Amino acid sequence: MVKWIEQWRLSSHRYGKYWLLFALIWFLFDQATKQLAIYYLKPIGSISIVGDFLRLTYAENTGMAFSISILPSWFLLITAIITSVLLTLWIWKIDSGFIYNLAFSLVLAGALGNGIDRLLYGYVIDFIDVDFFDFILLRWPIFNLADSGVTIAIILIIISTFFQKNRLQVNSTQSSDLS
Predict the structure, then answer these.
(1) Residues known to be catalytic
(2) Beta-carbon count within 10 A of 106 CB
């Protein structure tokens, strides 16, 4: 058993380091844009980029997704730390295929980006302010690049799962037609 643990500890898949590097780059870009938001947007609040559709607006989010505040900030920080550790190990050790590696790297970058904000400031810095012309919300909640990465990851996983399910159904149908 100890030999297996030692072997697992020393092994990694071929591209794990590149996916972790991608996560690091996304994380650094997220942090850089948040620092720009603090420096340029915090003093003025908001600037219009494309009319009322796209604005850059400084916001301090003590909640989680959509600024929902049902969990304490310390719990969200601990969750971000645990998620970051587990995803780092997963990405380093297990080759999950391109789509899942990309998705897990984006989630890792998002967890690190927002987790660092909670650790340093006690809140997450948001600044991307978009109006999607919906009739339920007056405006879409303000978000950041870490949030965008997590959202992209969820979309990738859903689409990949959908196509994988359809591919399995097509393959099983073709197999039964051959019999």
Answers:
(1) 126, 147
(2) 26
In the β-sheet with 54-61, what is the strand arrangement from edge to edge?
A: 46-50, 54-61, 124-130
pTM summary value: 0.80
* Contact by Cβ (8 Å): 117, 147: no
Residue 54: count of CB within 10 angstroms of its CB = 12
Dump pLDDT digits (tens) for 35-94: 999 999 999 999 999 988 899 999 999 876 666 667 777 888 899 899 999 999 999 988
Beta-sheet strands, E only, within 80-132: 124-130
Q: Read off the tokens for 27.
A: 């994380």
Q: What is the pLDDT of residues 100-134, one digit of tens each?
A: 999 999 999 999 999 999 999 999 999 999 987 76
Whose tokens are 């039964």? That residue is 176
Tokens linked to 4: 């297996």
Question: Alpha-carbon distance 126 to 114, whole Å?
Answer: 10
Round to whole Å and give the CA distance between 66 and 74. Answer: 18
